[in-house]
Amino acid sequence: MLLTARPRARRVKAALLTSAVSVCLIAAGVPSPAVPLGVGDRLFPYLGNPGYDVRSYDLAFTYSGSNREPLSAVTTIDARTTAPLKHVNLDFAHGTVRSVEVNGAPAAFTSAGEDLVLTPRAPLPGGSPLRITVRHTSNPVYAEGTDGGWVRTADGLAMANQADAAHLVFPCNDHPSDKALFTIRVTAPQGHTAVANGLPVGVHRGPRATTWTYRTQHPMATELAQVSIGRSTVLRRTGPRGLPVRDVVPTKERKTLEPWLAKTPAQIAWMERKAGAYPFETYGLLIADTRTGYELETQTLSLFERELFTRSEYPQWYVESIMVHELAHQWFGNSVSPRTWSDLWLNEGHATWYEALYADEKSGKSLEARMKAAYATSDRWRTDGGPPAMPKEPKPGRKISIFRPVVYDGAALFLYALRQEIGRPAFDNLERSWVRVHRDGAAGTRDFQDLASRVAGRDLSGFFRAWLYGTKTPPMPGHPDWKPEPARKSSQKSPHKTERE
Fold it and tell me: How many Å apart are CA 52 and CA 4, to the nearest integer?
């Protein structure tokens, strides 16, 4: 995710969940105790659920033609239990649950906090297959001030589930440490086009509606799921090594947007030279006619606001660097997902690093100057948001407030310091090794530290501890003249954010 500045009157509220967001239940309740669970994430204690490992999701949505009406939905989850379970908790906090089956038999269910708690007819042994089918609605209308999940566009819907809003759309184990394969089916009236993560595997055209089916070839975190429904055109081109590239744009904007979209294959090639082969089966941009205040790296189909490409005050170099930011996430954050949300810096720091490096190499926007400016502000960012690898908890009612400058330019500053410390050849080797070793998995700060130490041939734990966990920014290797600015309240903006105001 890249938060992008807007004129004050047009900024959207960032709250992802309020007390008004709830699950409506139509069934007998679960006998007590029904309690919300979590996987122990420091920033989101009740996110995710223990006791099972999801292998795949099958999501089926039926869209009425109005983005103000609930979609009819069926979510099927194939998993394997990792412990004996009397109850199975799913994250789900917005919709009407009509029925639940566990391993083919009806199951009782109720809600607890943001969890949907299921009670199968008999306890489930550990190490056994688990299939859950939930018939429910998926409501794109939220309480005032709620953002995330479905995003209503001028002609339909898109998704923006980061950090913890996938469970506003469908029942799931909503934590990036539990990745799974996805099959997504969308039925929409004639005149609409539906596109989702992965590659198309089937289209069924009926007299009044069409059903599109998409499937991923690599596991995906729930926060990266994407479904676009609208009066859209799909533009296709070829990327490096025959990679299929497809972009989804409002039909009326296709000519305006085509010059920007034509840049993607060369950007992919540039990233491949830095980080290795593109890690997925396809890529493209979903350009939505909506205002969110951010762009989002949904897997294989990154979400962008239309106005990024149509407002003349945004310089070309800036727009292209933002395109590269979301592209870089396909390696850093998507293929290699964060083990916990405290590891967010691994996502955003790397995406910001390649955004800045691209601007330096392609447009002459000095990387060193940007890092020097970040160094001057880094202490204030740490005071406001915590160190890069130990960010402060989100503000009440504003869960995306974890996306602070310290995990963007503050974390990119650490990567610059690491390159200064171990040298460019070792740093470049580390970057390629990281995405190769942890491809399709989840990894954390300690994993990056251990790999960096192996690549550098020496223990870097002290260096990592000072830079990623310290309240003060350490001296910059090779730049003893760089100094932090005197402490004062931060504006909460990274240096590059001001370009869009």
Answer: 37
Give the pLDDT confidence score for residue 98 in this predicted structure: 98
Of 93, 74, 72, residue with least CA distance to 146: 93
Give every CB contact of residue 279 below 8 A, 6+ residues apart in sequence.
218, 330, 331, 334, 335, 435, 439, 440
Give first-to-last CA distance, the chain, whole Å: 18
Which two structure tokens, joined as six digits, stand for 222?
Answer: 């729930």
Mean pLDDT score across all residues of the chain: 91
User: What is the rounded CA–CA span in Å between residue 383 and residue 490?
Assistant: 8
4-9, Cβ contacts within 8 angstroms, sequence gap of 24 or more: 4/293, 4/294, 4/295, 4/305, 4/308, 4/322, 4/497, 4/500, 5/493, 5/497, 5/498, 5/500, 5/501, 6/291, 6/293, 6/500, 6/501, 7/501
Residues 234, 272: contact at Cβ < 8 Å?
Answer: no
pLDDT band (50, 70, 90) for residue 24: low
pLDDT of residue 143: 81
- Is the pLDDT assigned to residue 501 strictly greater than 60? no
Q: Give per-residue pLDDT as tens, 154-168.
A: 999 999 999 999 999
